[in-house]
Amino acid sequence: MKLIRPVLAVIVILAVLFVGALAALPYIVSTDSIRLHLAQNISAWTGYSVEIRQPPRMSFFPVFRASLSDVTVSKMGDTNTPFMAAERIEVEMSPLDALFGRVAFTETRLINAHFALSEPVEDLPQFVNTLASSSGRLGLAIRQARNVTARKTDSDQQSDKQLQTMPFGRLVLENSSIGFTTRNTERQEQISKINASIDWPQTTSAATVKGKAVWHDETVDYNLNVAQPLLLLARGMSQMSAQITSKPLTISFDGRSNISENIFTEGAFSLSSPSLSESLHWVGLSSDASYSLRATADDAFSIETNVSATPLRIKLSDIVLNLNNMPAKGAAEIGFGKQRPVVTGTLAFQTLNAVSFFHTVTTLVTKVSEDEEAKNYGGYRYAPPRMIDTRLLNSADLDIRLSAQNASIGAAQMTGLAAALQIRDGQAIFDIGDAKAFKGSIQTSIKLSQTEDGQDNIGVRLNAANIDSAAFLTALGLNDPILSGQGNLSVTAETSPQSLQSMLRNARGQISFTLNNGRMLGFDLNDFIAKMKSEGFFALQRRDKVSLDFKRLDVKASLGDGVATLETTKAETMQGALSLTGIIPLTDRSLALSGTLTLPQPAKEAADTPADSGEATPPAPVATPETTELTVTEPLVPPAENLHFFVGGSWDRPFISPSK
Predict the structure, then answer these.
(1) How far, in Å, CA of 458 to CA of 456, rounded?
(2) How far apart are CA 72 and CA 474, in angstroms?
(3) What are phi and psi of 277, to 5 degrees?
(4) For residues 68 and 101, is the Cβ–Cβ distance under 8 A?
(5) Residues 6+ apart with CB under 8 A from 102
(6) SS3 state of residue 512
(7) For the segment 608-635, what is each residue's pLDDT rounded down to a tens digit?
(8) How large is the average pLDDT for residues 392-404?
(9) How confident is the model at residue 473 (pLDDT cuts 50, 70, 90)?
């Protein structure tokens, strides 16, 4: 009992002293000294000029804190646009240090601060150089670290221990923002609602940055860990890892980097996105801010690669890519030295959907008017449906070589594909140099471009050799094709791709194909001849289990003004020859053709052939011919029978009208 009383007395005395110290803090710590010390601290750490226009407000519970309003940080000698303007800065201090007249900040909190950058990649090395040239503590530490790293060799294990150690503390950003100008486009961008904490206990320890921000209306979570931040500020290499997570995409990096004038980064990089087109637009690939996104569900994307990057070039090796469930491996390089980024590379797919790949790369954004933005277009978000959009063609130059064990273009299946995708000078070209398809081989080229008046244009070139016509027509959507046989096909056409109707209406070009030893399925020639001779007007209907064999079929047609003009159509059969000429309107699916069926007339039997009586007929006496002039005559050939007719009606229900 006697021992407890002195202990209680000591506790009471200490409590009274502590409360008294807290009560005395407002009188011990001068608000002017805090304002001056904060300005000196920021200026010493950054090398920038600091202006605090309002006196601080003090609070002592639950922590000892000073709040300063209307704070600006500017580059030395530049008073026009401050590097940072903060609505308020709050600093937490040690009460014990304050009692002894020392002002030491344990945490600095920037509230509603705005940072103005001209261009992040260029400003970052400049900012680091400004820190290094300042007379403050951080500047001295950076310069000393630069001297150490300049003398460091690969075998020197003690140089890192020579770095200057000093406390840095914790920096918190609340509801802040960063404004900057994008390279080349000069477009003003802003990252808003930044809430982050930067923990760097000492200059020789690791640093972490964690937080959230909003960019282009999407919330982004980020996490950065730097093993040696002081070496990083001293133009040296430091191990680091970073993760960025958002709805449009997720990015991670684990490697090393520096932030000198020649920024260099290398390490393992991965990116995944539920929609590549939306992600590319979100990061600002399009130079037109009025573009609206296509909400596509067929361009999910992921990539894992080893990256080596400088400000002018990015090299990607050991690429493992997956685009819409199409895995591929390869390598690529991206250059930024020209007006537009230049992308080159090779990709080897196991299975490639060429239409999906081409569509994803080229059809990313659609420009719409303000009235259209208020509408809902089903599968699209704020954008009317378009078949193909070529506005991205001026955003980058692309040269990608593709190969695939198995590939498809629509319903067409191919093997051993070798192709190339090029975007250059405002046009995109997808070339298939070689592929096996339809029991033969094909070569094709698809070109997207824009005319001088801004009209989108698509050109198609197709050459097919020894293909199965029935398989080819089935791939085009004709489930019950009329032709069967091996042959060659050549197509050259171009049109405007705004819609299916415009494609048919504006199509122009040439089509030709030849089939040998084939069949015209469902066509009964004998029934056709009988109706031609007995009926004045009849519908041409396909018949089951009937076909017309032909030795050769030649077709040549031209496209223009929404019409296919049959210049030559001729089928040579054992029974005769069938030819057609005329026009086939493409928009209303009607027919306007004239045809001729040429039937050879069978030779007549001799009228005076004697009957066979079974008895031998004595030979006729041989008369000695008179000497006459020799005359050679051609054998009598029966004249051919020509049946003329007109074909009208529609593609799926043609009508035949015999004509003289």
Answers:
(1) 7
(2) 71
(3) -60, -45
(4) no
(5) 94
(6) strand
(7) 444 444 444 444 444 444 444 444 334 4
(8) 82
(9) confident
Tell me the one-letter amino acid at 313: R
More confident residue, 406 or 389: 406
**Total Cβ atoms within 10 A of residue 310:** 13
Which residues are within 8 A (CB) of 519 and not within 5 positions of it... i.e. 6 or more apart?
Answer: 483, 484, 485, 547, 548, 549, 550
Q: How confident is the model at residue 242 (pLDDT cuts 50, 70, 90)?
A: very high
The reported pLDDT for the residue numbered 57 is: 75
**At a CB cut-off of 8 Å and minimum separation 6, what does 4 contact?**
none
Across 85-94, 153-162, 166-175, 188-197, the highest mean pLDDT is recorded for 188-197
Closest-CA residue to 32 (of 49, 52, 60, 46) = 52
Q: In this structure, are residues 151 and 144 in contact, taking their beta carbons and an 8 Å threshold?
A: no
Q: Which residue has the tokens 């980058």?
A: 396
pLDDT of 357 strictly over 70: yes
- Helices 137-151 and 31-46: crossing angle, nearest 10°? 20
Position 295, amino acid: A
pLDDT band of residue 575 (cuts 50, 70, 90) is confident
If DSSP states are collapsed to H, E and C, what string results for 174-239?
EEEEEEEECCCCCCEEEEEEEEEEEEEEECCCCEEEEEEEEECCEEEEEEEEECCHHHHHCCCCEE
- Give dist(CA 236, CA 146) in Å, integer: 8
The CA distance from 389 to 398, in Å, is: 17
CA dihedral for 335, 341, 342, 346, sign (positive or negative) = positive
Contact (CB, 8 A) for 434 and 418: yes
d(CA 288, CA 395): 10
Max alpha carbon distance in the chain (Å)?
175
How many Cβ atoms from other residues are within 10 Å of residue 42's Cβ?
20
